[in-house]
Amino acid sequence: MNRNRKVNFLSILMLFALLVTSCGGADAESDTIATAVAMTVSAQETEKAQATKTPVPTKAGPTSTSDADPTKGTAPTFAPPTAPGSVGSENNCVSASYVSETIPDGTIVQPGETFWKSWSIKNEGTCTWDSSYKFVYESGDLMGGLQEYPLSELVPPGDQVDISIFLKAPSTNGNYKGNWKILSPWGGTFGVGTYDTPLWVQINVNDSDNPNYTVTNVSYNIVRDPPSGCYTNQWYTVYATITTNGPADVYYRWLQKDGNDMKTPHLLTFTEAGSQTLSREWKFHLADSPGTKWMQIIITEPEYHEYEKATWVFDCGS
């Protein structure tokens, strides 16, 4: 088909050249034919190149920002959360401290008895805790609890939260303890304090009708007022927290280094296992002798026990 078109075109061109020749000289004829032939060859080469050129496939969709549809926004890019540093690192987002608890260690309970165990802890990190954080069983005795409990509220840095779980005492007499920690969204667990200590529940299962309820622990906290410097009068207050494993009438006495002792035991009544805090003050003057001072709690009933001394150094004396 293309060949016939080319023959027809050449025939018309030659006829046109003859007509021109008949009207002009030999030079005009030669120039005209040469020009016509050159144009013909150029046209044929162009047509051939276009016919044999290999097509280049085009890419689907826009190839640059100028090709994009201006009526459509750019799709957002999402990145997974970055895991915090290891527990204990300087700028760690997951860190906690212990505040208080219910069901003190060694609480006596009946076999199969159900109870709530609660801890109050403080968010010491830089990240807010939410329901993606979980309170999880770590080791020891599970005591009928679940393996994990999602946190039920937001806990911003610096806030406290109460975590409570429902447990059931084993059916056999004995001492039982279960350890718990917090699981972060990144899969790591953390406890409380510098050493990542787990929170735990510790009970004494006893089926006796008259179990041995007694004092299980005494702890101290010493407060100085003013907190620093030397003044005419300085006060030291010792706070003693007494803990029992059940309902008990506790009799106690204070002793102190200068001999200003409590002569008669005082009564402290517990209606259930728990803790109560007492306090005692000691005033110092600038003329008092410096050195190590102490106070001490003595439990006389239901079982006699002399607990360790609360000690401090007074260094402002003459």
Write up what this structure looks like.
The chain has 318 residues and is α+β, with helices and mostly antiparallel strands. It folds into three domains: 2-40; 96-205, Immunoglobulin-like (Sandwich); 215-314, Immunoglobulin-like (Sandwich), CATH 2.60.40.3880. Helices cover 15% and strands 40% of the residues. The protein has helices at 2-23, 26-52, and strands at 96-101, 107-109, 114-123, 134-140, 148-150, 160-168, 174-183, 189-190, 199-205, 215-225, 233-244, 248-256, 266-270, 274-285, 291-301, 305-314. Strands 2, 4, 5, 7, 8 and 9 form a six-stranded mixed β-sheet that branches. It has a four-stranded antiparallel β-sheet with strand order 13-12-15-16, with no helix packed on it. A three-stranded antiparallel β-sheet has the order 1-3-6, with no helix packed on it. Strand 15 and strand 16 form a beta hairpin. Helix 1 packs antiparallel against helix 2 (26-52). The longest helix has 27 residues, at 26-52. The chain is flat, with a radius of gyration of 47 Å. The model is unreliable at 1-7, 12-83 and 85-90 (pLDDT under 50).
Task: Identify the notable features of this structure and list them briefly.
alpha+beta, 318 residues, six-stranded mixed β-sheet, Immunoglobulin-like, single chain, four-stranded antiparallel β-sheet, disordered N terminus
